[in-house]
Amino acid sequence: MNERVKRILMIIIFLIIVFGAGYLLYLFFFKSTAPKPPEAGAPIAGQGLPKAAPGQRATSTTPTGPGGLPGSQLAPGQIPSELIPESRTQVLYDKTTRALSLAPNGNARLYDPLDGKFYRVDAQGNTIPLSNQTFYDVQDVDWGKQSDKAILSYPDGTKTLYDFTTDKQVTLPKHWDDFDFSPQDDAIAAKSVGNNESNRFLIVSNPDGTDARAVEELGENQDKVHVSWSPNNQIIAYSFTGDPIGFDRQSVVLLGKNGENFKSLIVEGRGLVPNWSPNGENLLYSVYNASNGYRPELWISGASGDNINANRRNLSIQTWADKCVWQDPDTLFCAVPVGLEEGAGLQREVANDVSDSIYKIDLKAGQKINLGIPDGAPTIDKLIVAPDGKSVMYTDRNTGKLMKYAL
């Protein structure tokens, strides 16, 4: 082999060695870390569902809740929103409300002080204005019981009877106060408070103020008499003018519309707040005394004719009687503060920020059931029963909203 051929072979072998070493360096340092281009139709990382091997369940890095439901990462013990039951508390009217009352058709009626309108609201939250009229700065509202009539009181002392059915208004005397309608709304009772003691009377009149007549002279006892017309049409007011019978007992005089001399109601305490049963046969009331730390406590008593004081008993529930509503003559629902300070009966304002539970009281069976605290832990101002009896409606003192709570 000549020298020229040897030189060519040596060059070829050298090139083979160089290219081979370079290829080996490529395989070792670069090809193992280079990303493989996606195949046609293959999902790009981060998009679509991950593939699974035959017969295996696909896995994903997306957090899941119990049962494989997709969702955000849950804290220990946290329940996913999909599994949380529907709330028993619903907003029916989300603005400030006052003067909640049961309308003749069983729905709620109320006053919105922000827009000066009166509304009717049903249990589904449907809202209808009672009138196109605007009533600014209404201070107190005394509703009719069988009609959409109301006596509206204003800060300057003006009082008007307004009939929302006919949109008619009548002005009542400014010196009349403490109104209540008769069971059929065909009359009103009030206190006529003149400038001197000889001109102060408990009166009855037509709703428009005509045909007024004096029932009882009030004199210096005007602040001890409170108007409350019973559903059976027997009693129109009660008075703290009875004979003293002890520090923690009181004789409350019951006044009839014709000056009847009824038996006095004996109560075990002070600060009576009454709530008549639908038929007027019984009276739910709250009083406070030393034995209960001067906290209001519910009692029930016969309050009609010869049955006044009959079956009087303590219900052992601490709340005010005007935070209760009757469903029927044997069934009550009450808003009961979760805890009352000692002396709350003497100064009710201390309970303005205390949340309430809803209690059902069955007088016939002697049962009381705690139905729980509505969402938001409200301080309940006024309570009514929805027409279907399956929920209660109430106003929240803290927010002013009208709410519904399923029973």
Structural class: mainly beta
| Helix-strand pattern | HEEEEEEEEEEEEEEEEEEEEEEEEEEEE
- Number of DSSP-assigned strands: 28
Q: What is the spatial order of strands in the main beta sheet?
A: 1-28-27-26
The best one-word shape is elongated
Radius of gyration: 38 Å
What portion of residues belong to β-strands? 35-45%
**Distance, first to last CA:** 112 Å
Round the mean pLDDT to the nearest integer and report it: 85
How would you characterize this protein structure?
- Strands 1-28-27-26 form a 4-stranded antiparallel beta sheet, with no helix packed on it. Strands 2-3-4-5 form a 4-stranded antiparallel beta sheet, with no helix packed on it. A 4-stranded antiparallel beta sheet has the order 6-7-8-9, with no helix packed on it.
- It starts with a helix and ends with a strand.
- Mean pLDDT is 85; it is low at 29-72 and 74-84.
- It contains 1 helix and 28 strands.
- The radius of gyration is 38 Å and the shape is elongated.
- It has one helix spanning 3-31; strands at 89-93, 98-102, 108-112, 117-121, 127-129, 140-143, 149-153, 159-163, 168-172, 176-181, 188-193, 200-205, 213-217, 225-227, 235-239, 250-256, 265-267, 270-276, 282-288, 297-302, 313-314, 324-328, 331-337, 356-362, 367-370, 380-385, 391-396, 402-406.
- With 407 residues, it is mainly β.
- A hairpin with a 6-residue loop joins strand 10 (176-181) and strand 11 (188-193).
